[in-house]
Amino acid sequence: MPVEMTRVRFEELVADALDLVPEQFATAMNNVVVLVEDHNEEDPSLLGLYFGIALTEREQSNYAGVLPDRISIYREPLLEMCDSEDEVVDEVAITVVHEIAHHFGINEDTLHALGWG
């Protein structure tokens, strides 16, 4: 049975997960915003998604003036897959770290090899 949780509480869990990111990575995040959305319109099963140009792909000469990259964390599928708030806390943290890794240019294969797939 899906966990019931207010949007405010879920946003707090995302903020808590961001606080777990080591300082050297948090300060290196450049031009990125993290948002909570209910679900992805194209694929409602997605837990999170990174939209943007990874730091490893950016060229300073043509990167100026662009909109921030975006990490979307999808509330509904995360709540649906969990049976307790403790599970939601864990899954939100995993999803946030996973999407931040994409911001740093870490691909799916590497994430799976590291156990974050």
UniProtKB/TrEMBL annotation:
GO terms for biological process: proteolysis. Transmembrane segments: none annotated. InterPro entries: Zincin_1, Zincin_1_sf. It holds the Pfam family Zincin_1. SUPFAM superfamilies: Metalloproteases ('zincins'), catalytic domain. Gene3D superfamilies: 3.30.2010.20. Keywords: Hydrolase, Protease. GO terms for molecular function: peptidase activity. This is Putative Zn-dependent protease with MMP-like domain. The lineage of its organism: Bacteria, Bacillati, Actinomycetota, Actinomycetes, Pseudonocardiales.
